[in-house]
Amino acid sequence: MNPNNAHIVVGITGASGSVYALHLIRWLTNNGYAVDVIASDTGRKVFEYETEVPFSINAIAVNQDLITLHDNDNLFSPLSSGSHVFDKVVIVPCSMGTLGRIATGSGSKLIERVADVAIKEKRKLIIVPRETPINIIHLKNMLKLASAGAVILPAIPGFYHKPKTIDDIISFLVSKILDALDIPNDLYKRWNGKGG
């Protein structure tokens, strides 16, 4: 459960990889974490296309009391203010356009503003970029964000846990996100130095 009443914001952009966001939100809410979800217009479309799950509270989470959906155009949202308390922010998947706007401080949408608030208020910001290949502009923007304190956690799965299903691969990355959030989890078999 959520012993510290941690409050987590999840941003979903139009990059491929919405399934990571879906699994993360479900795990968090199933384990008692309050989650605010913001999706870009394209993020909602890609989410529904890739996951075949409607973008609604009822479809996304079993524990609907712990999830709040926010309009990405609503800069009057409490999340846009540093005086509103939330603990950590994850943007998964993060498009390179969103990443670039956050890196330059030029965002005009709620996802970008929440990331900006996290940086200025010294709250944990985890960016999960999903793009390949990565060009030099992407790399420079990631370096700017890492230098500002963000965690850059690319959507790159490992295979040392011997995944058997797509769900195993998804769980690996979601576990890495939870680790970065300082949330204990056992979503995959961790390396023990013995290969088994």
3D architecture notes:
- By secondary structure, this protein is an alpha/beta fold.
- It has a single domain (7-180), classed as Rossmann fold (3-Layer(aba) Sandwich), CATH 3.40.50.
- It is built from seven helices and six strands, in the order βαβααββααβαβα.
- Helix 1 (18-30) crosses helix 7 (166-180).
- The protein is globular.
- The two termini are 28 Å apart.
Write the layout of secondary structure elements.
Blueprint: E1 7-12, H1 18-30, E2 34-39, H2 41-51, H3 57-60, E3 67-71, E4 88-94, H4 96-104, H5 110-120, E5 124-129, H6 136-147, E6 151-152, H7 166-180
Parallel strand pairs: 1-2, 1-4, 2-3, 4-5, 5-6
Helix pairs in contact: 1-7, 4-5, 4-6
Structural class: alpha/beta
| Ends apart, CA distance between termini | 28 Å
Low-confidence segments, ≥5 residues, pLDDT <50? none
Order of helices and strands: EHEHHEEHHEHEH
The percentage helix is 25-40%
**Overall pLDDT score:** 93
Q: Tell me the Rg in angstroms.
A: 16 Å
Query: What is the CATH class designation?
Result: Alpha Beta
Number of domains: 1
Could you write a compact summary of the structure shown?
The chain is of the alpha/beta class. The chain has helices spanning 18-30, 41-51, 57-60, 96-104, 110-120, 136-147, 166-180; strands at 7-12, 34-39, 67-71, 88-94, 124-129, 151-152.
Name a few traits of the molecule:
196 residues; alpha/beta; six-stranded parallel sheet; 16% strand; globular
